[in-house]
Amino acid sequence: MIRSCTLADFDAILQVINDGASAYKGVIPDDRWHEPYMPADELRHEMASGVVFSGEEVGGSLVGVMGSQPLKDVVLVRHAYVLGPRQRQGTGSRLLEHLISAAPRPVLIGTWAAARWAVRFYEKNGFTVVEGEEKDRILNLYWDIPKRQVETSVVLADERACREIVGTSGDDAEDNFSALILP
Ligand SMILES: CC(C)(COP(=O)(O)OP(=O)(O)OC[C@H]1O[C@@H](n2cnc3c(N)ncnc32)[C@H](O)[C@@H]1OP(=O)(O)O)[C@@H](O)C(=O)NCCC(=O)NCCS
Questions:
Q1: The domain spanning residue 98 has which CATH number?
Q2: Is the pLDDT of residue 173 over 70?
Q3: Which domain holds residue 138?
Q4: Ligand 1 geometric centre to CA of 176 (Å)
Q5: For the chain, how many structural domains are there in total?
Q6: Pocket test for ligand 1, best of 86, 117, 124 (most atoms within 8 A of CB)
Q7: What is the 3-class SS of the chain, one letter each residue?
Q8: Taken in order 83, 88, 91, 94, is the CA torsion positive or negative?
Q9: Ligand 1 centroid to 153 CA: how many Å?
Q10: pLDDT for 29
């Protein structure tokens, strides 16, 4: 069952994120890896900044979570994680479909370039990789991240974002928001 998460799910969300994120260990640059990958304070900050989670529940427990964050003229998909043993069984696709169908705006996702499986997952679900200078422009416009993370991240755009965001100047977007990229 896909459902919206509440504050009561905080510990379960944290557990799913940190379990799923173990896939990054030894894959993303060493200087970007830390344990736990998502400290509780960071998750609290993310939720306070407007990241709203949906989750898939099986047998009364969350097995996957995915956040969405309306930001400027887009919706960012943030923190997509499925428990290790539950990966590749459709949970991520169901959650993504749920968030996209509820999104009133173009959807963008940022993730580690080295997480090739994640890029493939989004491509399979209709997203397109944005590359080169345009990727850097979009990351700098919608995310507040160190230069090093811009270099090691990719952006994926849904069909509407490809039409309305990619290749545009972005002048219409307000600049008073920021989001941490912790995919
Ligand atoms: C990425 C993730 C959220 C996808 O959720 P999921 O439930 O595993 O994905 P689905 O079952 O809906 O889709 C599976 C497809 O995703 C890709 N994929 C997901 N995990 C993969 C893996 N470990 N190796 C290779 N491909 C993988 C494949 O294309 C796969 O299709 P296939 O099984 O037919 O080859 C989940 O695998 C995960 O938590 N991974 C670790 C953390 C992560 O990378 N998060 C993304 C942050 S932006």
A1: 3.40.630.30
A2: no
A3: 2-164
A4: 33
A5: 1
A6: 117
A7: CEEECCHHHHHHHHHHHHHHHHHHCCCCCHHHCCCCCCCHHHHHHHHHCCCEEEEEEECCEEEEEEEEEEECCEEEEEEEEECHHHCCCCHHHHHHHHHHHHCCCCEEEEEECCCHHHHHHHHHCCCEEECHHHHHHHHHHHCCCCHHHHHCEEEEECHHHHHHCCCCCCCCCCCCCCCCCCC
A8: positive
A9: 17
A10: 87
How far apart are alpha carbons 163 and 145 in whole angstroms?
25
pLDDT in tens, 149-164: 899 999 999 999 999 9
Does the C-beta of 89 come closer than 6 Å to ligand 1?
yes
In a domain, residue 170? The reply is no
